[in-house]
Amino acid sequence: MKGLRRVLTEEQIEQILDKYTVGKVAFTLKGYQAIVPNMTEEETAFVLEQLKLAREAIDYKNMKQISAVFEIYKTKCEQYFNEHGRNWRQMFKDYVNKRNAEKKAQGKKK
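The chain above was modelled as a monomer; its predicted structure follows.
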């Protein structure tokens, strides 16, 4: 990365890392925003920072290994929510229940 940073802009490096991890930062951030009600700017910034750290830590070739690295940083994000007055397990459970209800409602409409 140091070598790349000497010849590329940060924007170019972001694009390379994003393609290398097949958009996992944006995808995972969107998931957190769907699960965590009223996510604050501070929480969003923390999650985004952690996901970008995960992306930088990746020096692997396959998605299973990339996902394993992201899992470490996702755990840090979940701990952050718990430490800042939120209950990650409950928020995730509420999200799953909401999605299941939406799917069930869609199935009845067909």
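The longest helix spans residues 88-109.
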